[in-house]
Specification:
The structure is a single chain. By secondary structure, the protein is of the alpha/beta class. The chain has helices spanning 13-33, 52-60, 65-73, 87-96, 100-103, 131-137, 165-174, 193-203, 226-250, 261-269, 287-312, 375-382, 426-435, and strands at residues 42-47, 75-80, 109-111, 118-120, 142-145, 158-161, 188-189, 254-259, 320-324, 351-357, 364-365. The protein has a single domain, classed as Alkaline Phosphatase, subunit A (3-Layer(aba) Sandwich). The protein has 13 helices and eleven strands. The longest helix is centred in the last third of the chain and has 26 residues, at 287-312. Bound molecules: zinc ion.
């Protein structure tokens, strides 16, 4: 079966500005009509690489009940990203409202100061305050689970389960079991969460009835490293379990959770959905593999929808639920990419998605005008905290609870974090990034 790629929509700066203007006018009028409801909590779910084209396609088939419910109850549309489309830059822009030049995390890895090889970007490289710092400093409680570059964990008012927790668990499993967990460097703040999270990863689950489509690795092309995809499947479940646990324990005013799975799986399987015309040789496998890839890709979206449902069902009508992705996907521009049949490098993949529902959020499908830089100012406004003038985005009119006077900056004072020592997850993370072709 063949799904032709859609033509990218022509987006000039002018037409975007026009759209943004129109959207603000339309939505502002919605905003005026609402009462001022009691402010609830906020959950922000980051899903790496969810494509507007595929999510649309699957919602139309009724395959994504939770995404569809969100779209029906609130707003849904493309979230404009900014290239180069490397996840850590974008997820830090989403969490700060600032460009990578300002926040400082421009890629996956950077040169060591000593000049001896590469190291991962980590939380100490972020030069500006993130949403969780600002909200925490305002006296509200925050939970952060698995967000990019959150190791070493920061001492926020709440809990931070860093993105080194799961790769370190993998590293520990593959090492000789002579290291006691007590000796390990904390990947969570407060440190007391370390054991709790460890038990959750090892003993609980699964959250959904979905079966791992990669469990039988013999049926998949070995180049796709099906064992790794199987890990990805299990990890998304574990991340959501950790997020639900943080939510149960703290009921924070703001919960942020990041799931990498769709990006990882789409790199291998995207060709099952779309192949660039004239680049049919970008699919160096047979029709049977094509069908399998397509079904597993769809299934992974459905699985993610089910995981999402488990979390957002915990949020009521006074709460703001927001789901975003950092970019979409596309078929490779170069032929013969045997391991990665999906990529995100051009304008065609530049839009992620934004779903939001909550008090005062209209029922609306929008076509543009909202960017990754708008997420942080919008959530701040919703919580009654003024966004800052040095942010590159603005509070999107449809979610603004009340007009707030902007402050000059939130980058005042230092960010307290745990000691910046190696977590033990570094090699595993670098290996995963190499497997995806993100680094050499
Ligand atoms: Zn990404």
């Amino acid at each position: 079966m063949r799904v032709n790629r859609l033509q990218p929509r022509p987006h000039t700066r002018q037409s975007l500005m026009l759209l943004a203007g129109l959207l603000c006018v339309v939505l502002f009028s919605f905003g005026c009509e609402r009462d001022s409801p009691e402010r609830g909590r906020v959950v922000l779910v980051g899903l790496d690489g969810v494509s507007p084209r595929l999510v649309d396609y699957l919602m139309a088939r009724g395959a994504l009940p939770n995404f569809s419910r969100l779209a029906k109850a609130g707003v849904f549309g493309p979230l404009r990203s900014e290239g180069p489309l490397f996840s850590p830059r974008i997820w830090n822009s989403i969490a700060t409202g600032k460009s990578p030049e300002k926040h400082g995390i421009e890629f996956f890895v950077t040169q060591r100061a000593s000049g001896t090889g590469l190291r991962l970007f980590d939380s100490t490289d972020r030069r500006v305050h993130a949403l969780w710092n600002i909200v925490s400093d305002a006296g509200l409680e925050v939970g952060v689970v698995n967000w990019w570059n959150t190791y070493p964990p920061e001492k926020i008012n709440g809990a931070m389960v860093s993105d080194h927790v799961l790769p370190r668990a993998v590293a520990e499993r593959t090492q000789m079991a002579d290291e006691s967990p007590e000796a390990a460097t904390p990947c969570c703040f407060p440190i007391s969460w370390e054991n709790r999270v460890g038990l959750l990863i090892e003993r609980e689950g699964p959250l959904t009835a979905f079966a791992d489509p990669f469990a039988d690795e013999t049926v998949w092309p070995p180049l796709w490293q099906p064992k790794r995809l199987s890990h990805v499947f299990a990890e998304d479940d574990a991340i959501m379990r950790m997020a639900i646990d943080v939510d149960e324990q703290l009921q924070p005013d703001l919960l942020m959770v990041f799931l990498p799975g769709i990006d990882r799986v789409s790199h291998r399987l995207w060709g099952g959905f779309e192949i660039r015309e004239g680049h049919e040789d970008a699919w160096p496998y047979g029709e049977a593999e094509r069908r399998m890839a397509r079904e597993a890709l769809f299934e992974y979206y459905e699985y993610t929808d089910a995981l999402l449902g488990q979390l957002i069902d915990r949020y009521g009508k006074n709460d703001l639920v927001m789901v975003v992705s950092d970019h979409g996907f596309e078929s490779p521009h170069r032929p013969g990419i045997a391991e990665n049949t999906g990529t995100h490098v051009s304008e065609e993949a530049i839009d992620g998605v934004l779903f939001a529902r909550g008090p005062g959020v209209p029922h609306l499908r929008f076509e543009g005008g909202v960017s990754i830089y708008d997420v942080t100012p919008t959530i701040l406004s919703w919580l009654g905290i003024p966004p800052a003038l040095d942010m590159d985005g603005r509070s999107v009119a449809f979610l603004k609870s009340a007009p707030l006077k902007l402050v000059a900056t939130h980058d005042v004072g230092s960010i307290d974090r745990l000691e910046a020592v190696p977590s033990g997850a570094e090699e595993e993370i670098i290996m995963q990034l190499r497997g995806l072709g993100y680094i050499e």
